[in-house]
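Before the break, one more example. Copy the sequence into your notebook; we will annotate it together after we see the structure.
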Amino acid sequence: MKKIVILLFCIRSLFAHAQHAPMPNYSYTPKPDYSFSNFVAMNAMFHNYRYYGTVSQKHKFKVLMKDSSTLELVAKIDADSLTRYLVYTDRSVKRSDSGRTKRIYPSQTLSISRLDKYGTDTYTGIPADSCWLFPAIKGALTAYAALAEDEIDDSFLLYIQKGDGPLVRLTDDNLEASIKDNEKAERLLKKKKYSRAIIKFNVSENERAAPAAPSGS
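Here is what the structure looks like once it is written out:
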């Protein structure tokens, strides 16, 4: 009887641990030929919204397909274990038909753009192997994410691009190299405040590039 009680206690403990285990977040990384492949990222504790960490809302998107046709539809960026995709409802299909819910994958597109209420492009994503990359922070140093949202957590930022240079993975080392000699941005980086470091760097670069005010006569 004592052995049975101990066994039941162990099973209950394992079940409780499984319930509170952090869920994996799906992310992406570049290959040398500038295409992209997926890998399981750390810091999954921030992404309990869904199993693969997507917090995308429904938006109106303009989708440029590889055959040059264009679609405008209300959709959401979702994810499975392999890729992100646009999921939308085809209202021309009966509710009882399983084909009413459809998906569009990055490999099928040339680009997708999130539209505002006036039909203007707000975020345009370029297709990668398993996601679209949207400019989340624009400037001298641009940061990219796989979501077309106005506000996202730093942990969703995937790549940075300085000027017209190549896209590189957002890491402490790569970001430090990009904001070198900008003391305020470097201090923010040391505190792991990545988006604030990038914004601070961009503000400084804009101020440096602005023409000097004319001196009084």
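Confidence is low (pLDDT under 50) at residues 2-53. The helical segments are 2-19, 172-178, 183-190, 194-209. Try to locate both features in your own notes.
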